[in-house]
Amino acid sequence: MFRFIIRRLVITVPLVLVVISLTWGLIRLAPGNFYSSEKALPPAIEKNIREKYGLDKPWYVQYGRMIGNVLRGDFGLSLRYQGQSVNQILAQTLPVSATLGLLAYGLALVVGVAAGTLAAVKQNSRLDYISMALAMLGISVPNFVLGPILVLIFSLNLYWLPPSRWGGFPSWNLVLPVLTLSAVYMAYIARLTRAGMLEVLRSDYIRTARAKGLSERAVIFRHAMRGGLLPVVSFTGPALAFLISGTVVVERIFALPGLGNYFINASLNRDEPLIIGIVAFTSILIMLLNLAVDIAYGLIDPRIRY
Amino acid sequence: MDGILLSIRDLRTYFYTEDGIVKAVDGVSFDLRRGETLGIVGESGSGKSVANLSIMRLIPEPPGRIVSGEIIFDGEDLLALTPREMRRIRGKRISMVFQDPMTSLNPFMRISRQLMELTQLHLGHTKRQAYAHAIEMLERVGIPDARMRVDSYPHAFSGGMRQRVMIAMALACEPELLIADEPTTALDVTIQAQILELIKRLKRETGMSVILITHDLGVVAGMADRIIVMYAGKIFEIAPTAKLFATPANPYTKGLLRSVPDPARDAGRELYQIPGLPPDVARLPPGCPFAPRCALAQERCRREFPPFVQIAPDHHSLCHFATEVYAESVREKEAKGASDLNPL
Ligand SMILES: Nc1ncnc2c1ncn2[C@@H]1O[C@H](COP(=O)(O)OP(=O)(O)O)[C@@H](O)[C@H]1O
Ligand SMILES: [Mg+2]
């Protein structure tokens, strides 16, 4: 187990370097640059700027410097947010995105597992049909549609909840963005849980548990849940990755100062250090989260040995 | 030794499927005495498991339903109990061992916990008592190093060892009735004999009653006091073991007996098989369900459902020609007895 974790951590380093190299290459391939807008600058000024940021050096020197920064964990200064380092921006925006993401996934887990388990236990009941219909809806409505609809209903019509902006944690401002981000995961987890539980409830060892005289509650919670939730655990790895891209959209819709919103701005502005910083940070995060999921899987299923 | 522990009267368990009503068990009646071992044999699909799951009230519902009948256990009709009352009987007074030990234990739970939950539930054991009892039970069913292995997960055990664990679980609360549903079918031949020996020994030690289900007459021969032969959800023959083997009164039983391997008789010959396949119990013809496969079948067999003929007070057979088949068996036995006495 320990060696498995070390091996996975070691592999993370080259993977992240590949990801940021690709990102860097793509930024360079795209036309335009951070200092020019529509109007062309006088050549002398442009030359000054290029020298100041080292853009006059050959590409491999620039690439080497960028990789060096990443390896040191210091992504340098933002080109657009004057006087702020990329690390400072990460430190400010991460709590916003993390709050949003964790709340959304936590809510999705609680509601999804509960709904999926109930649907499985009461298979073909009205409850089952209703929750699965809702789940189908949750999966098919994209978050950039759901968000504005929720705002329309709960903010602009009913005046129950604020439509946008960051209000810290906890605050009513979080409700709509968290719901918007959570919906698709909730729906997916409900379906996965239902399928997993149905399969387990049919299995021989559940019949054994019933033959022991255990109550239905013990059969479901003690015996069936673990196996039934394995698909949800494996889904959590990819889900967290998508969750991060989901926050990009939701932060944009609700004007929240999170990583995702800054990432979009950085891309529009060609703020190369900030882009590299956010990409490097999120890719490390995704790999670590996936590792955590694999470890959790191993802890739940004793048959798995690393 | 005396007294009836379990009495089943006209049990009918049906499954309501898209293909129609599967009459998995259709009018089964029998008694089981205290301390008796009853063998139930029949080809797969004959309703052996469904009959016994009905006793435990573990029929998946829907699609299944116990349509009618009585299951009197120690004077109480199990079918009239509330679910809660039934749970106090399951695992405590009636236990079951299933066919496939590889899938019948919870793979995510330590063996210790799977054993402990039983005695904590039914005997009110504390954790400590339950743990000690778990080790004791594993030792009793012959698991070496029980103390060290009690905390393993099932995947660390072989098939034979897992079946021993299942038996330990079944016996943890000293039940009055053990139902073993093909407990050796999924195991290697050498392991099979060990498991049967174990059940025999534990039965001797505890005096419980046993229902041993199998599709192999060879398995029950040395175990059961009496044998029930099932076919298409019905009892075709019931007799004490020695009588059933020596003088069967049903053509289906004779077919089953011929398909038991006998090295003395079959050396070099291909093993006998009853021709044809077991019927679809959702679409039974009006007559005898075995008629299409029976060498003795007459016109009447295809038309009329056969009577349950009493050959002797403890010997019954479901066949239009039960007396004839019985008489033939007696003749064969006498001829064989004569040739045994007179080896020339
Ligand atoms: N859950 C179920 N749904 C539908 N049919 C079933 C179900 N369980 C058993 N049956 C049917 O009941 C009949 C008897 O099955 P079973 O008792 O398992 O036979 P066996 O004698 O091999 O133990 C078979 O025809 C089987 O298809
Ligand atoms: Mg069976």
From TrEMBL, chain A:
Main location: membrane
Transmembrane segments: 9-27, 102-121, 133-160, 172-190, 229-254, 274-300
GO cellular component: plasma membrane
Source taxon at top rank: Bacteria
Residues annotated as signal peptide: none
Domain ABC transmembrane type-1: 94-297
Coiled-coil regions, chain positions: none
A Pfam family: BPD_transp_1
The keyword Amino-acid biosynthesis is annotated on this UniProt entry: no
GO BP terms in the entry: transmembrane transport
Record key words, sorted: Cell membrane, Membrane, Transmembrane, Transmembrane helix, Transport
Lipid bilayer topology: Multi-pass membrane protein
Subcellular location: Cell membrane
Family: Belongs to the binding-protein-dependent transport system permease family.
PANTHER family listed in its UniProt record: INNER MEMBRANE ABC TRANSPORTER, OLIGOPEPTIDE TRANSPORT SYSTEM PERMEASE PROTEIN OPPB
Protein name, entry field: ABC-type dipeptide/oligopeptide/nickel transport system, permease component
TrEMBL record, chain B:
UniProt keywords, alphabetically: ATP-binding, Cell membrane, Membrane, Nucleotide-binding, Transport
Main subcellular localisation: membrane
Organism: Pyrinomonas methylaliphatogenes
Localization per record: Cell inner membrane
Name of the featured protein: Oligopeptide/dipeptide ABC transporter, ATP-binding protein
Membrane topology: Peripheral membrane protein
Ranges of residues in domain ABC transporter: 6-257
Annotated GO MF terms: ATP binding; ATP hydrolysis activity
Stated family: Belongs to the ABC transporter superfamily.
GO biological process: peptide transport
A Pfam family: ABC_tran
GO cellular component terms listed in the entry, alphabetical order: plasma membrane
InterPro entries in alphabetical order: AAA+_ATPase, ABC_Ni/Peptide_Import, ABC_transporter-like_ATP-bd, ABC_transporter-like_CS, Oligopep_ABC_C, P-loop_NTPase
SMART domains referenced in this protein's UniProt entry, alphabetically: AAA
Record's keyword annotation contains Nuclease: no
